[in-house]
Amino acid sequence: MENWIYAHLEILIKVILSILSIFSVIIIITRISGLRTFAKMSSFDFASTIAIGSILASVVMNTGQSILKGTIALGGIVVFQAFFSLIVRKSNFFSWLLTNKPILLMKEGVILHDNLAKCNIAEDDLIAKLREANVIHFDEVLAVVLESTGDMSVLHNAEGKKLMDKMLQGVNKTKEI
Predict the structure, then answer these.
(1) If we measure between CA atoms, which residue out of 48, 168, 33 comes closest to residue 56?
(2) Is the confidence at residue 148, as pLDDT, over 90?
(3) d(C-alpha 138, C-alpha 115), whole Å
(4) 98-131 residue pLDDT tens
(5) How many angstroms separate the CA atoms of 26 and 36, rounded?
(6) Per-residue pLDDT for 82 more than 80?
(7) 83: how many CB neighbours lie within 10 A of its CB?
(8) How far apart are CA 3 and CA 11, in angstroms?
(9) Model pTM?
(10) For residue 77, is pLDDT > 50?
């Protein structure tokens, strides 16, 4: 009987074989589908990465799971992710419908409180990201963008350079200052 300290040798061997098999499958799928498989370009990509990790863990840890079933699930997620990326890239309507646009949270040292509220982000969270980016004064901040992935990009400059308009391409500015 298996408990929290001990496992039978046959179960351990199955776990090791599952690891070798399913990781070989994921390497092959990644080589075929490309690096986008694990890129966090959108919230959908992030969800796909989590789903892939969950399937890998299920196949490895649950000795009753089929490696074939796990392989089909992994392949299905990657195919759907590629299809999703294609329709979003080719169709403005689907891009608008299915993806989040980045949103401006701060511009030229001024916090855009309406945009923070729209994104459900506290000012303290924004300031924490500024500290993480080594900003020591709001005047250094050219822009802070909440990206479609949920990451915050802090564009700052202590040398007095202006922000290039192209850097805010595709960003929802909702409330201008």
Answers:
(1) 48
(2) no
(3) 17
(4) 877 899 999 999 999 999 999 999 999 999 999 9
(5) 13
(6) yes
(7) 10
(8) 12
(9) 0.68
(10) yes
Which amino acid type is present at position 97? L
Give the chain's end-to-end CA distance (angstroms, integer): 67
Phi and psi of 169, rounded to 5°?
-60, 130
- Identify whether the C-beta of residue 116 lies closer than 8 Å to the C-beta of residue 126: yes
CA quadruple 42, 43, 47, 53: dihedral positive or negative?
A: positive
* β partners of residue 118: none
Does 47 or 4 have the greater pLDDT score? 47
Helices (H) and strands (E) in the chain, counts: 6, 4
Average pLDDT over residues 23-42: 82
> Quick count: other Cβ atoms within 10 Å of Cβ 28?
13
Q: Residues 6 or more apart from 23 whose CB is under 8 A from it?
A: 56
